[in-house]
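Handout, page 2. Input:
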Amino acid sequence: MDTRRAGSSLPGSNGEKRQGPSAGPSPGKPGASLRTQA
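Output:
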C-alpha cells in the first residue's frame, strides 16, 4: 500500500528499479531519469 507511494517519492523501492542507476544521482527527480533513458 505505502510501498507504491514511497516508491514514487523516494527512489530506492520501486523508483530505483524503474529508473535503475539513474535514481541514485537523481533522487527526487524520477521524471529526469525517465527522460534520460527514453
